[in-house]
From TrEMBL:
Organism: Microvirga subterranea
Protein name: RpiR family transcriptional regulator
One Pfam entry name: HTH_6
InterPro entries attached to this UniProt entry: Homeodomain-like_sf, HTH_RpiR, RpiR-like, RpiR-like_SIS, SIS_dom, SIS_dom_sf, WH-like_DNA-bd_sf
Gene3D superfamilies attached to this UniProt entry: Glucose-6-phosphate isomerase like protein, domain 1, Winged helix-like DNA-binding domain superfamily/Winged helix DNA-binding domain
Cited SUPFAM superfamilies: Homeodomain-like, SIS domain
HTH rpiR-type domain: residues covered: 5-81
Domain of life, source organism: Bacteria
Length: 294
């Protein structure tokens, strides 16, 4: 049996082996997790048709100090994993046409929202700082932002810039520690809360580097930025199988920065791209125009 990672998982695993009374407690909890977090022990015991001591024994069996502690941990687990637990209790459309339409519309809405909130002055200032930087460092953590940092590096290296990307928290701090005045740190975060990013941004800024944060306004990371590119894409109805659409907004910012940096660094960037294109011809022959070397 796999070791449970949450209180709800623990209850699901032990429920089949419980005696009759405690099994009723487990069943009532799993049937209405959210409701259990708001009910008194007296009302819950009546609902499960068991005694209050039975409820207390059950709470202690799953590692809680009492029913209040049980409700608190249950609420925390439910808040974190709500979309996953509810997915097992709801029938969602899984047909390709409906899914494609939802993903398409979600992307369009995210791009429109991000475009409407773009700060052109901040965008121009960020591109200028990156184009003039001694080195550019792109940082991000997590499933989306770490990849966005890598994509920013992928857009910039072909212009001949000294650029690196890092998702490892230790490496992020080390890169910040060796930052020089005139360097540029481009930091991606949907929430602006990851400690390693906030820490690295604070160190890099303290050493005189420009810290360009693509993140939520008012967040800890935003507070440490020298240039803020605000990104706040409201979430639509969230389901466990749909990726966070904020990444469309992140990609919009990346492509805008890349285009601006390329223009600011020409004619050097144009010569670099021409050399890349010439080299790639030896690998796959002639193709239609691909000026950025894709």
């Amino acid at each position: 049996m796999n070791r449970p990672t949450s209180l709800i998982e623990s209850i699901e695993q032990i429920a089949p082996s419980l005696k009759k009374a405690e099994r009723r407690v487990a069943d009532v909890v799993l049937q209405d997790i959210e409701g259990t977090t708001r009910i008194s022990i007296k009302a819950f015991a009546a609902q499960a048709q068991v005694s209050e001591p039975t409820v207390m024994r059950f709470a202690r069996r799953v590692g809680c100090d009492g029913f209040s502690d049980f409700k608190l941990r249950l609420a925390q687990d439910f808040a974190v994993g709500r979309m996953y637990f509810e997915a097992e209790r709801k029938v969602q459309s899984g047909d390709a046409e409906t899914t494609a339409q939802r993903v398409y519309q979600s992307g369009i809405d995210a791009l429109a929202t991000s475009f409407a909130s773009l700060d052109e002055r901040a965008l121009a200032a960020a591109a200028s700082a990156m184009a003039e930087a001694g080195k550019v460092v792109c940082l991000g953590v997590g499933g989306s932002s770490a990849i966005m940092a890598q994509e920013m590096e992928n857009r910039l290296f072909r212009f001949g810039l000294a650029v690196t990307a890092a998702a490892d928290p230790y490496k992020q701090s080390m890169l910040a520690a060796i930052a020089d005045k005139g360097d540029a740190f481009v930091v991606f975060s949907v929430t602006g809360k990851p400690a390693s990013l906030v820490h690295a941004a604070e160190i890099a800024a303290g050493r005189g580097a420009a810290v360009i944060a693509v993140t939520m306004p008012g967040s800890p990371l935003a507070a440490r930025a020298t240039i803020l590119l605000p990104l706040d894409v409201p979430g639509d109805e969230v389901h466990f199988n749909f990726p966070n659409r904020t990444r469309y907004g992140q990609l919009l910012v990346i492509d805008c920065l890349s285009a601006l940096v390329g223009a600011l660094t020409k004619p050097v960037s144009a010569r670099k791209l021409h050399r890349i294109r010439t080299t790639l011809l030896a690998l796959h022959g002639h193709t239609d125009a691909q000026p950025i070397g894709d």
